[in-house]
Amino acid sequence: MYRxxxxxxxxxxxxxxNVTLAGWVQRIRDFGGMSFIDLRDRYGITxxxxxxxxxxxxxxxxxxxxxxxxxxxxGMVRERSSKNMNIPTGEIEIALTEILILNPxxxxxxxxxxxxxxxxxxRMKYRYLDLRRNAVxxxxxxxxxxxxxxxxxxxxxxxxxxxxxxxxxxxxEGARDxxxxxxxNPGMFYALPQSPQTFKQILMVAGYDRYFQIVKCFxxxxxxxxxxxxFTQIDCEMSFVEQEDIxxxxxxxxxxxxxxxxxxxxxxxxxxxxxxxAMNNYGNDKPDLxxxxxxxxxxxKLQGKGFGVFDQSPYIGGICAxxxxxxxxxxxxxxxxxxxxxxxxxxxxxxxxxxxxxxKSSIDKFFNAEELAEIGNLxxxxxxxxxxxxxxxxxxxxxxxxxxxxxxxxxxxxxDKNRFVPLWVVDFPLFEWxxxxxxxxxxxxxxxxxxxxxxxxFESDPGRVRANAYxxxxxxxxxxxxxIRIHDQKLQQKMFKxxxxxxxxxxxxxxxxxxxxxxGAPPHGGIAFGFDRLxxxxxxxxxxxxxxxxxxxxxxxxxxxxxxxxxxxxxLEELQISLDLKDNK
Amino acid sequence: MYRxxxxxxxxxxxxxxNVTLAGWVQRIRDFGGMSFIDLRDRYGITxxxxxxxxxxxxxxxxxxxxxxxxxxxxGMVRERSSKNMNIPTGEIEIALTEILILNPxxxxxxxxxxxxxxxxxxRMKYRYLDLRRNAVxxxxxxxxxxxxxxxxxxxxxxxxxxxxxxxxxxxxEGARDxxxxxxxNPGMFYALPQSPQTFKQILMVAGYDRYFQIVKCFxxxxxxxxxxxxFTQIDCEMSFVEQEDIxxxxxxxxxxxxxxxxxxxxxxxxxxxxxxxAMNNYGNDKPDLxxxxxxxxxxxKLQGKGFGVFDQSPYIGGICAxxxxxxxxxxxxxxxxxxxxxxxxxxxxxxxxxxxxxxKSSIDKFFNAEELAEIGNLxxxxxxxxxxxxxxxxxxxxxxxxxxxxxxxxxxxxxDKNRFVPLWVVDFPLFEWxxxxxxxxxxxxxxxxxxxxxxxxFESDPGRVRANAYxxxxxxxxxxxxxIRIHDQKLQQKMFKxxxxxxxxxxxxxxxxxxxxxxGAPPHGGIAFGFDRLxxxxxxxxxxxxxxxxxxxxxxxxxxxxxxxxxxxxxLEELQISLDLKDNK
Lengths: 585, 585
Description:
homodimer, alpha+beta, CATH 2.40.50.140, BirA Bifunctional Protein, domain 2, Gyrase A, domain 2, eight-stranded mixed sheet, 16 helices, 23 strands, globular
């Protein structure tokens, strides 16, 4: 062992102990007669001190050291004269008697500090240096802790962690698969799992009634910001349960994590909200409930008063921003430009201000004070508040109102990263109609079960059928989702029919799992949580990238190892494939 | 919830409780006035009883049931009149009042029992039924427990579990990679990791001084028996440590697992043996030390006495099989045939029998009693023992003696599956000479460090240099191996030179990690354990297949989901690759 203690360990109680430490040189300060080195390792920073009068050979070595050199040092712990109470080792320092350079370092291309001067691209290229920064290290440690606590919870609840294959089979439904050519089966391919969905349902058929896995999944998508081609899920499935059992079990998991990791408890059961209420009241199936600011429909109230924009809109809705009446003309203009950006796409923004000097609005021409007051009552608006109104096609406008609500929440400081409001969104529609292909798609997946009470519409009005499907949402972020599956074959066949599959197509795509289901499939259901997302929420980050040790960039490249890369002619020949590059680059 | 209790839970204390159970019909027995159903779930089997006099509607349902039907039942717990003390629920039964068929089942193609009538191929095709068998289920549960305990140990020791990428980069050295074409980077490929070796060393450079991961690895090899294209490793790396620290830490891991899982403790430190001793004394770098039966070299003693076979052999060696003197002529012939099989490849087998009637051998013609007795003394042979002798080229003969030793151990019942003898094999050679390519290869990998005391031979006689490399061997099975890595760049360059790399080749293949090492790489080393192998050893199995939920067969196929499979023309086009099948099938 190269050390007796770590750099985060020594305290006032260790004074007069001879110690050996090893780590990286964070900083060297030379004060004439006295030099100081901050020595860093995973556990902290310890101050080393070299007195020029007493340590001649050691003093000579200091000149050779540079930032990020790896050194081993020996010395005695002593009390600092000027203490630093901001760090745990701040009351002591080591009076050095020996320095051994274990490895030199080139000058790193950016500073190893919380506020580094390295840009994103540089940090990713030198990720091994970036990972030394405390800000990144904390996330990696948090991720470890959360993974262990997740497993502990499930283990205590009688779940078994079972590894499912990574070399799987390509399925045409769903997102694009990554595929792996098989050398021993020429012309054939494995696929990497988008999720272990099939295998976890198979495990239920196999009788493993409580399964979980923290597992890598893969999706060959065009990468948007904050998507990764490989990501990690907490994947779970249970048998002999109903929706309520699932919600309780996984509410338990989140409570366990919040308690163990963040010391946060929730007095009340998690809120429940139907998909329909979420859409109507928040314009969004993953509402951020850290603040209220519900959307109210105003179509009936605001039409027929001669304001053309409203009269031509199938839907009018608004939100009431508490305490925003003092917004200046400039702020309102800014917000108007904000909603008009192509990403939001609103035509304009109407406001009704409830100021000290009475109610004023941008549509005063069409509405009298009484009518505006009535609108205010609908929202419970008080003096000091401001109502914002958007109009247009219903679904679109609700979406815009949702964005406006979140942005207003941001501007009013209502979205505190240290407050967490968890929510179950339930009663999702079973089907989604796609205009392009003129067919229904399964909103969750084709094995999701319908609500029995909606079965009367199953064939006559599929769009009206709700599913036993649920999402777990915290602070407006969807952390996980799942459903109770269909275990009855007749119902499954009906489902395929509505989805427009012929019997042959259904057989081709899902024959294997349907076959497994003929051998005694129990009632079952499950859920999957995005683990990267969960960790990033706990660490207060907006992006998942910094909770992943080695993330890929937006082109799916690992710029540190320079991957993907070309492979040799011999490799291609062995796999019996050839490149067929188009001139589209 | 479909049940109040599981099928493994009810005891005499639950008598007179009304319960609801759910599970699979294991067996139905009709005794005229009385019917019995064995209901099975993951937790056990509970006996259900239906009395024809009292439960008319329920009686009628029994006729509809078949093996593996999924049912929910209600009834009252009562004491059995005829108890079955072999199962935990054997003192009670449930007097049924209700049966609900949750799902019917086709007749399974084999019996769901420990001794199933299903062959290997059938079991793999219907793996979901096979997994219902207690014999398989126990392995899956054991695997879960071992994974949790492994993590617990490392977590307690301050290790961080850090996920490394699955979409990596192909490296030409080592075994064959599985590759993944990148759609967004046409003509380029990711590779699946054969191990996270590069990334774990990068993590050491990044300062994460105790890393572990239970991780899937991939190797596109021609599958021998008991190899899987995807397998699971316990992968570990530590910084600021020497070999001794690593051995102690991972000996600790094994002790923890043996204690927690099997209740077995080891009084003594694990044995240590040099590679050289292992090869000379056991003919094998992973000796099974459950029994002694050391190999002794007899070249000097047995040559020059006129026995041509010996006189022409560069090496003669033997083992002493304690208590084997009573082997019959037939048994010796059988063993002779066994060593002559092509897999072993010996020319013949010489024996020296130490019977009650004196010493007899198959080479009596050439050696007198005194000479044979002297050989006996060398082995410490006693009356009742038998010495077997093989001769030929040294390395080959030692290998044959090793096989013979193991086989003899088997036949003498010396290899008890419930006894475990762990061993560290150390001081492996750094290089292996390859006759075919006339160059040295790194025996472990090119980052393995040499023993400082052997550095004098590094350039003059590389074959003589020993490495800081170690294997963990239990009962003749290599469970894991690792090394202290090179962290000094000058030494690393010397290493590449001996391995025959030009500077450019080294740069091309290892430039990225070499570059990382210029920014302050700490002294470090690590180890990886084969998790599948470890679990199969703990479960007393010879094969790793039954400790994997969904294994692939010897052609790398998953016969359950029928994978790998063809993919669509559109998929190939998007990936800009085409098939280039040879007519070699």
